[in-house]
Design a protein that fits this description.
- By secondary structure, this protein is mostly beta strands.
- Helices cover 0% and strands 50% of the residues.
- The strands form three sheets. Strands 1-4-5-6-7-10 form a six-stranded antiparallel beta sheet, with no helix packed on it.
- It is elongated, with a radius of gyration of 22 Å.
- The two termini are 39 Å apart.
Length: 153
């Protein structure tokens, strides 16, 4: 069976992952011994998987970032929760003239409204009686759109 449209359809999956096991070999701070503890600020694992698909003038991009728990201090007494963030984008390329293309794009970041730590501050210290702030929260779900003009020469 010959499907002529299939020759114009492209799919590019991607995947990468890391499993991290960074720990202190020898680390003593006064009377405290942190040997064997996980290094603060380093996630236990990360997985980045996605799919890019193209058909004629349309392009669809999807991405899943999954991050394992992250130790927040040398004692390994506090950790972030693991999280998964999904981002989606759709583009449409419209050829105006031979060398000019207009690009319409839109998408969603953090599509499932995941609560996560975008930035981690290992061994944070509170000031003025305030509790330590170990992390800054990531962005909520957000939408974007745009129009661009491309010129090829």
């Amino acid at each position: 069976m010959h499907l002529p449209w299939l020759s114009e359809f492209q799919v590019k999956p991607y995947f990468n992952a890391a499993i991290n096991n960074f720990e202190f070999r020898k680390f003593q701070d006064r009377e405290e011994d942190f040997e064997g503890n996980n290094l603060p600020g380093v996630p236990s694992s990360t997985v980045n998987v996605g799919l890019d698909a193209n058909y004629k003038g349309f392009s669809f991009y999807s991405n899943l970032l999954a991050v394992g728990e992250i130790p927040l201090n040398d004692e390994n007494s506090k950790f972030t929760d693991p999280y998964r963030v999904v981002n989606l984008r759709l583009n449409y390329n419209l050829e105006l003239l031979r060398d000019f293309t207009i690009v319409f794009s839109g998408g969603i970041n953090n599509a499932f409204e995941e609560h996560y730590a975008a930035s981690v501050l290992p061994n944070a210290v509170g000031f003025g009686g305030a509790a330590p702030r170990y992390y800054y929260p990531g962005n909520n779900r957000n939408y974007f759109g745009g129009v661009g003009l491309n010129y090829s020469f």
